[in-house]
Design brief:
mainly alpha, about 0% strand
Length: about 190
Amino acid sequence: MAKTWKHDFDIAKFSRIIEQNPKDYRAYKDRGNAYHKKRRYDLALADYTRAIELNPAYFLAYNNRGNVYLQTGRYDLALADYDKAIELSPQNGMPYNNRGFINILMGRLDDAERDVRRSLDLNENNIYALNSMSELYAARNNAEETCKWLKRAIEKGYNNWNYLKTSKTYDPVRQSPCFRHLLARKER
């Protein structure tokens, strides 16, 4: 896995910080992030949960734990964590976008649109929310709108080309000329 050495370094670094200060909730969240990147979901969940125990108002730990639940297919738990993150920090667009993405996966497209638009209201340049809006329109099988939103995301800096090429969220529009053209831009 790429950059695995960096994640190992981060795990060791944050473990030392935790050893010196076992109540440092941010260090637990940061170590959880490194475990998450290594796909050590059990350890990431434990660290995010510990961060929440130490600081129940720490919205990032809820958001990030929700991301692990999302990746492991536990959507109801992810939704609960995103809801809590939104309750704790309603002016941060990240958990709105994440909850919107889960709603896309669950086929709740109106709920998804409401959440992703709220994320974009809070930060119109959020490349992940722009991509989520693109995925929303892909789920609605609207290639033109999908490409419009994806083009905006790419213009703002979205560059996860592997995701665009492989994510099932784009399957409904994958063969559309505009989508193929956007992906071909990367090949040049």
